[in-house]
Amino acid sequence: MTQRIKDIPEHERPRERLAEKGPAALRDAELVAILLRTGLQGRSAIEVAQDLLKQFGNFHRLAGASLKELQSIKGVGRDKAITLQAAFALARRMVGELRRESPELDKPERIADLLREDIRLYQVESFHIVLLNTRRRLISVENISQGTLDTLLVHPREVFKPAIAANASAIVLVHNHPSGDPSPSEADIKVTRDLIRAGQLLKIEVLDHVILGHKSSENGRDYASLRELGYFYS
Q: Most-buried pick from 42, 79, 176, 223 (CB within 10 A)?
């Protein structure tokens, strides 16, 4: 049975708890309820928030939902759907601001942090390259190609063209696995080795190939590094 905000003691309500203890103290549904403010059709914001999270399963699917999909949840009207989309758009722009600060991207977890919020919304495989200067700091991120589910075509010409234009010293390959399992396929390994060889000819180092998926109890993280897995040669 869901709990209505009016049934919660005032000092335990989401807005009051956030003001007193900060956003980290709130559950996911409570944070979404604050964005919704009130429910519709006789439902509380907490009830609607719980239904949203149940329907979409996690935040990255909720963030990728269309206005129509959001409004399919009882109690979510057009204005509330727009509010949710705006909140997730602001989160992505914040990630973009952090990206423009040009962090040193010398570890796979930093690459994953850089692109996680953008790539996780894709329902098909999407291949990106991270262009780096001689100090391993960000120049830009380029979206090279998108494929059908579990199928992605990558050509060295398309990968290295923006790297040459940007005078990049090195690149990191990044793509997602919509299935959620970040383990590399045989095709991933072959493409990586082909691009390493092409980079050697062009004097542009391929530092790593990071595959983003979902965190699981087996791997403990939501990405895989082909360099860490031993598929790069010294």
A: 176
Query: Inter-axis angle of helices 45-56 and 28-36, to 10 degrees?
Result: 120
| Residues 183, 103, 171: CA angle, nearest 5 degrees | 50
Mean pLDDT of 101-113: 83
Q: Please provide the CATH number assigned to the domain covering 5-96.
A: 1.10.150.20
Query: pLDDT tens digit string along 7-35?
Result: 565 556 888 888 888 888 889 989 999 99
Q: For 104-225, which CATH superfamily applies? A: Cytidine Deaminase, domain 2 (3.40.140.10)
Is residue 136 a contact partner of residue 105, using CB atoms and an 8 Å limit? yes
Between 73 and 120, name the one with better pLDDT.
Answer: 73
**For the chain, which residues make up each domain, given as ranges?**
5-96, 104-225
Q: Under 8 Å CB-to-CB from 20, ≥6 apart: which residues? A: 11
Q: What is the pLDDT of residue 68?
A: 93
The Cα 177–Cα 124 span in angstroms is 8
